[in-house]
Design goal:
The protein is an alpha/beta fold. The chain contains seven helices and five strands. It starts with a helix and ends with a helix.
């Protein structure tokens, strides 16, 4: 993950972008991957670890109605988390992650399901990945890697969509 984190930071610096993160199931792992790189403060503005629904609502302005209607692990909540992180920071691009790291889950929302959001001032992209029952650490690692990949793609495409 170190190389993609370096690539993200360089790409963001080249485009004069600041990054914010909004993390639930990864608990700060995306922020840690980025801030492990020296000089990351040039492009990493802040990260929100919003594990509880209350934190998502209080810190990121996720609507209680959205949480009630779709559940915390949903693309709707991922979108509101990413948009909330953008609004509560000085960033121009944000990434969010909310999922079921396990153990457990349900037939409707199985272990390993993770929803992602990428927000800019003008766009918000969401998607869901089902990593399967990789174990808690495996799901969190896979979610972190995917979030970094999505962030890299979004920064690369930023001039066209941002």
């Amino acid at each position: 993950m170190n190389q993609i984190a370096k690539d993200i930071l360089q790409a963001a610096q080249d485009k004069h972008l600041m990054i914010a993160t909004a993390e639930s199931c990864t608990g700060g792992m995306i922020s840690a991957a980025l801030t492990d790189i020296p000089g990351s403060s040039a492009v990493f503005d802040r990260g929100f670890v919003t594990y509880s629904n209350a934190a998502k609502a209080q810190m990121l302005n996720v609507k209680v109605a959205t949480l009630d209607q779709h559940g915390a692990v949903s693309e709707q909540v991922a979108a509101e988390m990413a948009q909330g992180a953008l609004a509560a920071s000085n960033a121009q691009i944000s990434v969010s992650v909310t999922g079921i790291a396990g153990p457990g889950g349900s037939d409707h929302k199985p272990e390993g399901r993770v929803c992602f959001g990428i927000a800019t001032q003008h766009t918000c992209h969401t998607e869901t990945a089902d990593f399967g029952a990789l174990g808690r650490d495996g799901v969190r690692q896979a979610a972190t890697q995917k979030a970094l990949n999505l962030l890299m793609s979004a920064i690369t495409d930023f001039a066209m969509t941002g």
